[in-house]
Amino acid sequence: MPQSVNEQTKTARVLAASRRYVLLLCDGHESEWAKTASRHLDLCVGDIVNYSHSGSELIADSIVPRSNCLKRSYGRRSKELAANVDLLLVIAAPEPLFNTSFIDRILAAAQTEVIASALVINKADLSEQLEQTRSAFQGYTGVVDSVIELSAITGDNLDTLRNMLSDPSLYVVALAGVSGVGKSSLINNLIPDADQTVQTVSERTGQGRQTTTQATGYILPRDGIDNLCLIDLPGIQNFGLTHLEKAQVRNAFADFAAVAGDCQFSNCMHLDEPQCAVKQALESGAIAKTRYQSYLEILDEIDRFAQY
Ligand SMILES: Nc1nc2c(ncn2[C@@H]2O[C@H](COP(=O)(O)OP(=O)(O)OP(=O)(O)O)[C@@H](O)[C@H]2O)c(=O)[nH]1
Ligand SMILES: [Mg+2]
Ligand SMILES: [Zn+2]
Predict the structure, then answer these.
(1) Measured between alpha carbons, how far is 161 from 150 in angstroms, rounded to an integer?
(2) What is the pLDDT, as a whole number, of residue 206?
(3) 116 lines ligand 1 (CB under 6 A)
(4) Is the CB of 189 under 6 A from ligand 1?
(5) Residue 233's pLDDT is what?
(6) Which CATH class, in words, describes the domain spanning 69-232?
(7) How is 162-228 classified by DSSP, letter by letter?
(8) Would you list the domain boundaries of the chain?
């Protein structure tokens, strides 16, 4: 086997990225800061880079092609959130934090990039609020691969999540959710020394530690298999999708796509077309009204962006 190239170039996973520096997971366990070779090398958490040594410094030279990239956008600006994601965990919490607009948008972004997803309802210890919200999140069973309820504080049902994360086909799992749902609390529960990484990242970026402002990858050691990279994505208010085509949005709503074969027109956008199976599913309650509302809002946003 030819070894010459591999001896010079090593690859590493990006755990955190600031303008000119990236935190790399080298040799599967050591995290070290590296300088990016060029300001045009736009890296995000989850990326795999080729790196080399320059004196005492590490240099991130180039990017290994991504299998996918979770993005959001507003107008012409688009932001890459995480790359090479094997599973997206959408973290939610009972009312008043149950934000269907955010959930539907990030699920559409994931579906477009062919990223598997699960919905995790945290704060299940708040039983009264949980009861009030349960019917809303049960509407997601036809949308995501699984829906689980747990509590990062009491540890209730956390084993279900641990089992899910012990799947050896997973290398990168991203956690996303609006601010306050408990993403960092969950990561701290799964990885007791996660706090130390936060310290390293905030020293470099000069940012505070309370609310997560930078996407950060944490390493979850696993028995007998490769470590898992868990990405804590910052709480996001406006999850824009103006980088998508309308037809992509239509295809990204998995519950709509499941019935759309029965629409009269194969290219039905489920708006004013006759004999639309999605509209019928909406009327019968098989598809949640909030899902359809999110869909209309995303299409409307793309229209408004196209006009200006
Ligand atoms: N009752 C209850 N409270 C929780 C639970 N998990 C987290 N919290 C609380 O919810 C608040 C927010 O938790 P964080 O982990 O900081 O939330 P986050 O999603 O990381 O928020 P951002 O970093 O702002 O995006 C904290 O006060 C936690 O103590 C839970 O399972 N039950
Ligand atoms: Mg956080
Ligand atoms: Zn239709």
Answers:
(1) 8
(2) 52
(3) no
(4) no
(5) 93
(6) alpha beta
(7) HHHHT-TT-SEEEEE-STTSSHHHHHHHHSTTHHHHHHHHHHHH---SSS--S-EEEEEEETTEEEE
(8) 4-63, 69-232, 246-307
* CATH number belonging to the domain at 4-63, selected among 2.40.50.140, 1.10.1660.10, 3.20.20.450, 1.10.3720.10: 2.40.50.140
Q: For 246-307, which CATH superfamily applies?
A: Probable gtpase engc; domain 3 (1.10.40.50)
- Ligand 1 contact via 123 beta carbon (within 6 Å): yes
Asked if 269 and 257 touch (Cβ cutoff 8 Å), the reply is: no
Model-level pTM? 0.92
For residues 53 and 181, the answer to whether their CB atoms sit within 8 Å is: no
Q: Which atom of ligand 1 is nearest to the CA of 185?
A: 15
Burial class (CB in 10 A: 0-12, 13-18, 19+), 127: exposed
Closest CA to 252 of 111, 113, 115: 111
Closest Cα to residue 120, out of 142, 101, 95, 145?
Answer: 145
Q: Is 6 exposed, middle or buried (0-12, 13-18, 19+ CB in 10 A)?
A: exposed
- The pair of structure tokens assigned to 163 is 């089992």
Crossing angle (nearest 10°) for helices 289-307 and 100-112: 70
Ligand nearest to the CA of 260: 3
Ligand 1 in reach of 84 Cβ (< 6 A): no
What pLDDT digit, counting tens, does each position of 233-276 carry? 988 778 999 999 999 999 999 999 999 999 999 999 999 999 99
